[in-house]
Amino acid sequence: MKIQAAVAESTGARITVEELELEDPGPGEVRVRLVATGVCHTDTITRDGDLPLPLPGVLGHEGAGVVDALGAGVEGLSVGDHVVMGWPHCGKCRNCLRGEPRYCALLGPAVASGARYRGPLEGSSGYRRADGSPISGHFFGQSSFATYSIADATSLVLVDKDLDLKLLGP
Ligand SMILES: [Zn+2]
Ligand SMILES: [Zn+2]
């Protein structure tokens, strides 16, 4: 589907909004319609080259939104659910099994490789430019500087629909 996304073209470059093509969510992924996102210094330092995200790419890692579509194998979420987007985690490494997913052994590729970090689509990006060239997405499992995101399902936290999503991302 077509989305609007804020793209960091190169190290230090001004971030600009453009139309991208977003793939349908793959296994273990969820498409989220963003309602709001925080803007954090981690986005800035990544744009400036301090995290190894290959550019161009879509930043943003404090999203909040509404579940729009589910990929294969996703359980516990339904279309229309309200979610806050956190960090992805593999659920299988030593630290995940200890209940410390924040320290997942796959955290590096999960947050800053610009591509899927596991599963049958590992190494691929779901984000393409109008000319068909892939660019980095999946930043912190979400790339929330966009109208829609393909999120890693493990990064999503279900929240009450009475709460104002505009306030929940950060
Ligand atoms: Zn942050
Ligand atoms: Zn893990």
Strand and helix layout:
Blueprint: E1 2-8, E2 15-22, E3 29-37, H1 41-47, E4 57-58, E5 63-70, E6 82-85, H2 94-97, H3 107-112, E7 127-128, E8 148-152, E9 156-159
Antiparallel strand pairs: 1-2, 1-4, 2-7, 3-5, 3-8, 5-6, 6-9
Residues 40, 42, 61-62 line the site of one zinc ion.
Task: Describe what this molecule looks like in 3D.
With 170 residues, the protein is mainly beta. It has one domain (2-160): Quinone Oxidoreductase, Chain A, domain 1 (Alpha-Beta Complex), CATH 3.90.180. It contains three helices and nine strands. The strands form two sheets. A five-stranded antiparallel β-sheet has the order 8-3-5-6-9, with no helix packed on it. Strand 1 and strand 2 form a beta hairpin. The longest helix is centred in the N-terminal third of the chain and has 7 residues, at 41-47. The chain is globular, with a radius of gyration of 15 Å. The two termini are 26 Å apart. The mean pLDDT is 96. Bound molecules: zinc ion (ZN) (2 copies). One zinc ion binds next to helix 2. One zinc ion binds at residues 89-90, 92-93, 95-96, 104-106.
